[in-house]
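User: Okay, second chain of the day. Same drill as before: sequence in, structure tokens out.
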Amino acid sequence: YQEKDYERDFKDYEFSGTSMRDHWASGFEDTVKTLRHPQWLVKPDKSAAIVVHDVHRIED
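Assistant: Same drill. Structure tokens below.
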């Protein structure tokens, strides 16, 4: 999750309708971005303990 510029320290208990719709939209967008990388869905071989893909990482 990428926090928004307008969020403050109290975001952990801010559940207004606007905030919740914003969070849901952000989660949906992250899911769409993830599914655009089908290679990320391939099961890693047994030698890899964990694999992490970050849709917010800026590629060089």
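The two ends are 21 Å apart (CA to CA).

User: Thanks, on to the next one.
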